[in-house]
Amino acid sequence: VNVYDLATSNYSSLIDAHECARTIHIYGHDLLVCGMDDGSITFWHVGDGKRLLSINPEQGPIRCIISIPDGIVCGTQKGSLVKVPLSQLHYSPSNTNQPLSPKLLPHECKVELLHAGDDQGAIVSLDACGYHVAAIAGDGELQFWDARVNECLKRIRCDSPVHQVIALNKRCAAIADNQGSLIYLDQDDDYK
Fold it and tell me: What are the residues whose beta carbons fall under 8 Å from the beta carbon of 23, sequence distance 6 or more?
Protein backbone atom coordinates (compact mmCIF):
# COMPACT_ATOMS: atom_id res chain seq x y z
CA VAL A 1 0.00 0.00 0.00
CA ASN A 2 1.41 3.36 -1.03
CA VAL A 3 0.22 6.77 0.13
CA TYR A 4 0.57 9.46 -2.51
CA ASP A 5 0.77 13.10 -1.42
CA LEU A 6 -0.82 15.27 -4.13
CA ALA A 7 0.78 18.46 -2.79
CA THR A 8 4.37 17.19 -2.97
CA SER A 9 4.03 14.39 -5.55
CA ASN A 10 5.80 12.09 -3.09
CA TYR A 11 4.65 8.68 -2.02
CA SER A 12 5.59 6.37 0.77
CA SER A 13 5.05 2.67 1.21
CA LEU A 14 3.20 1.63 4.36
CA ILE A 15 3.26 -2.13 4.02
CA ASP A 16 6.29 -4.35 3.53
CA ALA A 17 6.51 -6.38 0.35
CA HIS A 18 6.01 -9.66 2.24
CA GLU A 19 2.60 -8.52 3.51
CA CYS A 20 -0.44 -8.52 1.24
CA ALA A 21 -3.25 -6.01 1.72
CA ARG A 22 -6.43 -7.33 0.12
CA THR A 23 -8.56 -4.24 0.80
CA ILE A 24 -8.12 -0.73 2.19
CA HIS A 25 -10.55 1.75 3.73
CA ILE A 26 -10.24 5.30 5.05
CA TYR A 27 -11.97 6.04 8.36
CA GLY A 28 -12.40 9.72 9.08
CA HIS A 29 -9.67 11.78 7.46
CA ASP A 30 -6.48 10.21 8.80
CA LEU A 31 -6.99 6.54 9.67
CA LEU A 32 -6.20 3.99 6.97
CA VAL A 33 -7.54 0.52 7.66
CA CYS A 34 -6.01 -2.41 5.75
CA GLY A 35 -7.57 -5.85 5.52
CA MET A 36 -4.80 -8.36 5.06
CA ASP A 37 -4.56 -11.79 3.43
CA ASP A 38 -3.39 -13.27 6.74
CA GLY A 39 -6.70 -12.19 8.33
CA SER A 40 -5.33 -9.25 10.27
CA ILE A 41 -6.74 -5.73 10.32
CA THR A 42 -4.05 -3.05 10.45
CA PHE A 43 -4.59 0.61 11.35
CA TRP A 44 -2.26 3.31 9.98
CA HIS A 45 -2.06 7.04 10.60
CA VAL A 46 -2.07 8.61 7.14
CA GLY A 47 -0.32 11.83 8.21
CA ASP A 48 2.93 10.23 9.34
CA GLY A 49 2.63 6.67 7.98
CA LYS A 50 2.88 5.04 11.42
CA ARG A 51 1.37 1.64 12.05
CA LEU A 52 -0.89 2.12 15.06
CA LEU A 53 -2.37 -1.28 15.70
CA SER A 54 -2.75 -4.69 14.13
CA ILE A 55 -5.32 -7.24 15.26
CA ASN A 56 -6.28 -10.64 13.93
CA PRO A 57 -9.84 -11.84 14.61
CA GLU A 58 -8.89 -15.32 13.28
CA GLN A 59 -11.69 -15.34 10.69
CA GLY A 60 -9.67 -15.67 7.48
CA PRO A 61 -8.55 -13.11 4.90
CA ILE A 62 -10.34 -9.73 5.04
CA ARG A 63 -12.29 -9.11 1.80
CA CYS A 64 -14.04 -5.77 2.44
CA ILE A 65 -14.30 -3.01 5.06
CA ILE A 66 -16.97 -0.36 5.71
CA SER A 67 -17.52 2.40 8.26
CA ILE A 68 -20.32 2.52 10.80
CA PRO A 69 -20.78 5.52 13.13
CA ASP A 70 -18.51 4.18 15.88
CA GLY A 71 -16.19 1.82 14.05
CA ILE A 72 -15.77 -0.54 11.13
CA VAL A 73 -17.26 -3.81 9.92
CA CYS A 74 -15.15 -6.27 7.93
CA GLY A 75 -16.28 -9.13 5.71
CA THR A 76 -14.02 -12.17 5.50
CA GLN A 77 -13.19 -14.91 3.02
CA LYS A 78 -14.67 -17.38 5.50
CA GLY A 79 -18.04 -15.57 5.42
CA SER A 80 -17.73 -13.88 8.82
CA LEU A 81 -18.70 -10.32 9.69
CA VAL A 82 -16.36 -8.72 12.22
CA LYS A 83 -17.10 -5.45 14.03
CA VAL A 84 -14.30 -3.31 15.50
CA PRO A 85 -15.66 -0.47 17.68
CA LEU A 86 -13.15 2.35 17.23
CA SER A 87 -14.33 4.17 20.35
CA GLN A 88 -11.93 1.89 22.23
CA LEU A 89 -9.13 3.41 20.17
CA HIS A 90 -10.05 6.85 21.56
CA TYR A 91 -10.54 7.96 17.98
CA SER A 92 -13.26 10.17 16.59
CA PRO A 93 -13.15 11.16 12.91
CA SER A 94 -14.81 14.47 13.78
CA ASN A 95 -12.16 15.39 16.38
CA THR A 96 -9.53 16.94 14.13
CA ASN A 97 -7.73 18.67 17.01
CA GLN A 98 -6.60 15.39 18.54
CA PRO A 99 -4.60 13.32 16.06
CA LEU A 100 -4.16 9.63 16.66
CA SER A 101 -1.08 8.59 18.53
CA PRO A 102 0.16 5.18 19.62
CA LYS A 103 -0.03 6.20 23.29
CA LEU A 104 -3.83 6.55 22.97
CA LEU A 105 -4.25 3.01 21.69
CA PRO A 106 -4.98 0.03 23.91
CA HIS A 107 -2.64 -2.94 23.90
CA GLU A 108 -5.52 -5.11 22.78
CA CYS A 109 -8.59 -4.23 20.76
CA LYS A 110 -11.93 -5.92 21.40
CA VAL A 111 -13.41 -7.41 18.26
CA GLU A 112 -17.07 -8.38 18.05
CA LEU A 113 -18.31 -11.12 15.76
CA LEU A 114 -21.61 -10.20 14.08
CA HIS A 115 -21.64 -13.49 12.21
CA ALA A 116 -19.30 -16.48 12.36
CA GLY A 117 -18.65 -17.73 8.85
CA ASP A 118 -19.07 -21.35 7.85
CA ASP A 119 -16.82 -21.37 4.77
CA GLN A 120 -19.91 -21.60 2.53
CA GLY A 121 -19.35 -18.22 0.91
CA ALA A 122 -17.07 -15.24 1.37
CA ILE A 123 -18.49 -11.82 2.09
CA VAL A 124 -17.89 -10.14 -1.27
CA SER A 125 -19.51 -6.74 -0.70
CA LEU A 126 -20.61 -4.60 2.25
CA ASP A 127 -22.28 -1.23 2.61
CA ALA A 128 -23.85 0.61 5.52
CA CYS A 129 -26.40 3.28 6.22
CA GLY A 130 -25.66 4.28 9.80
CA TYR A 131 -25.61 1.06 11.83
CA HIS A 132 -27.63 -0.85 9.23
CA VAL A 133 -25.30 -3.09 7.25
CA ALA A 134 -26.08 -4.86 3.98
CA ALA A 135 -23.80 -7.79 3.15
CA ILE A 136 -23.53 -10.07 0.13
CA ALA A 137 -22.15 -13.56 0.63
CA GLY A 138 -20.44 -15.36 -2.24
CA ASP A 139 -23.25 -17.91 -2.36
CA GLY A 140 -25.73 -15.15 -3.36
CA GLU A 141 -27.30 -14.44 0.01
CA LEU A 142 -28.19 -10.83 0.86
CA GLN A 143 -28.05 -10.16 4.60
CA PHE A 144 -29.38 -7.15 6.51
CA TRP A 145 -27.71 -6.56 9.91
CA ASP A 146 -28.18 -4.13 12.78
CA ALA A 147 -24.60 -3.52 13.97
CA ARG A 148 -25.75 -1.86 17.20
CA VAL A 149 -27.11 -5.13 18.57
CA ASN A 150 -25.23 -7.60 16.30
CA GLU A 151 -28.48 -9.01 14.93
CA CYS A 152 -29.35 -10.28 11.47
CA LEU A 153 -32.67 -8.70 10.48
CA LYS A 154 -33.29 -10.55 7.22
CA ARG A 155 -31.67 -12.97 4.78
CA ILE A 156 -32.71 -13.08 1.15
CA ARG A 157 -31.48 -15.74 -1.28
CA CYS A 158 -30.68 -14.36 -4.73
CA ASP A 159 -31.01 -16.51 -7.85
CA SER A 160 -27.69 -15.52 -9.38
CA PRO A 161 -24.34 -14.55 -7.85
CA VAL A 162 -24.22 -10.94 -6.66
CA HIS A 163 -21.04 -8.90 -6.73
CA GLN A 164 -22.05 -5.59 -5.13
CA VAL A 165 -24.54 -4.19 -2.65
CA ILE A 166 -25.45 -0.60 -1.79
CA ALA A 167 -27.39 0.13 1.41
CA LEU A 168 -29.96 2.73 0.35
CA ASN A 169 -31.39 3.20 3.84
CA LYS A 170 -31.93 1.08 6.93
CA ARG A 171 -34.48 -1.15 5.17
CA CYS A 172 -33.54 -1.23 1.49
CA ALA A 173 -30.60 -2.16 -0.69
CA ALA A 174 -29.71 -2.27 -4.36
CA ILE A 175 -27.71 -5.21 -5.68
CA ALA A 176 -25.86 -5.79 -8.92
CA ASP A 177 -25.80 -9.42 -10.04
CA ASN A 178 -23.64 -11.28 -12.56
CA GLN A 179 -26.40 -11.12 -15.17
CA GLY A 180 -26.12 -7.34 -15.37
CA SER A 181 -29.28 -6.70 -13.35
CA LEU A 182 -29.66 -3.92 -10.82
CA ILE A 183 -32.29 -4.98 -8.30
CA TYR A 184 -33.96 -2.97 -5.51
CA LEU A 185 -34.79 -5.01 -2.41
CA ASP A 186 -36.77 -4.14 0.71
CA GLN A 187 -36.55 -6.22 3.88
CA ASP A 188 -40.32 -6.76 3.75
CA ASP A 189 -40.10 -8.41 0.33
CA ASP A 190 -38.60 -11.69 -0.72
CA TYR A 191 -36.40 -11.77 -3.78
CA LYS A 192 -38.29 -12.85 -6.87
Answer: 34, 35, 62, 63, 64, 65
62 pLDDT more than 90: yes
Q: How many angstroms separate the CA atoms of 132 and 142, rounded?
A: 13
Give the pTM: 0.79
Residue 12, beta-bridge partner list: 3
Cα distances (angstroms) measured from residue 176 to each of 4, 65, 119, 161, 164: 31, 18, 23, 9, 5
Compute how many other C-beta atoms are within 10 angstroms of the C-beta atom of residue 188.
8
Mean pLDDT on 158-180? 78
Helix, strand and coil content of the chain, in percent to the nearest 5, comes to 5, 50, 45
> What mean pLDDT value characterizes the chain?
77
Task: List, in order, residues 6 or more apart from 154 with CB less than 8 Å away.
Answer: 143, 144, 187
Q: 3-class SS at 46?
A: coil
In this predicted model, what pLDDT tens digit does every residue of 136-156 receive, in sequence order? 887 778 888 899 998 888 888
